[in-house]
Design a protein that fits this description.
single chain; alpha/beta; Rossmann fold; seven-stranded mixed β-sheet; two-stranded antiparallel sheet; 6 helices; 9 strands; binds 5-O-phosphono-beta-D-ribofuranosylamine
């Protein structure tokens, strides 16, 4: 069975959705959670789901390189070959990404390349676009840029508030990300340049 690690910084609702889905289907195992924020609720979710979690404190390291080296060391120690980012609030450097080429995926709460970076749901809402959505993509050396694996649109209606829009986006995330992680673990996602094929 493939062992996957999840890197997260916050609430962890995607971590929970992925873990429950994979463990129920017995396809792959989320064998490690790495988080970088001592207050992250994701840690509590990991405890409940009996997933080993490791807190790596960025403040303890001289710079980004040393911090990332510690993450890499931890991943190697746990024999992790594939990584899913789920609300990990840091940009991984090219040095890190090169250690896991096409073996890191991320979920982003907009239809990339629209609204990259932080606060994507709010930016889409404030821009008053009619359609936004969710993107799952490979992580490459540029921010929110790698080959797109899956996208799903979400309509913003006149009645939506930022809160209701966030809820709609998260609902889509929790439905699609576990399935994409499943295909990713089963090596069913093929990439040719930027073109991605599933199955
Ligand atoms: C999600 O909206 C995801 O798209 C973004 O960060 C958020 C994480 O939410 N990258 P959670 O921590 O999984 O609840």
């Amino acid at each position: 069975m493939v062992n996957i690690a999840i890197l997260a910084s916050g609430n962890g609702s995607n971590f929970e959705a992925i873990t429950k889905y994979l463990h129920k289907k017995k396809i792959a195992r989320v064998s490690l959670l790495i988080y970088d924020n001592p207050k992250a609720y994701v840690k509590v979710r990991a405890e409940k789901l009996k997933v080993k979690s490791v807190f790596i404190d960025p403040k303890k390291f001289k710079g980004r390189r040393e911090f990332e080296q510690e993450i890499i060391k931890t991943l190697k120690k746990h024999k992790i070959k594939k990584i899913a980012l789920a609300g990990f609030m840091r940009v991984l450097s090219p040095y890190f990404v090169r250690q896991f080429p096409m073996r890191i995926i991320n979920i982003h709460p907009s239809l990339l390349p629209a609204f990259p970076g932080t606060n994507a749901i709010r930016k889409a809402y404030q821009h008053a676009v009619k359609i936004t959505g969710v993107t799952v993509h490979f992580v490459d050396e540029k921010v929110d840029h790698g080959p797109i694996i899956w996208q799903e649109s979400v309509k913003i209606s006149a009645k939506d508030t930022l809160k209701t829009l966030e809820a709609k986006i998260h609902k889509v995330e929790h439905r699609i990300y576990p399935k994409i992680v499943e295909y990713f673990c089963q090596a069913k996602i093929k990439v040719n340049k930027r073109k991605v094929k599933i199955g």
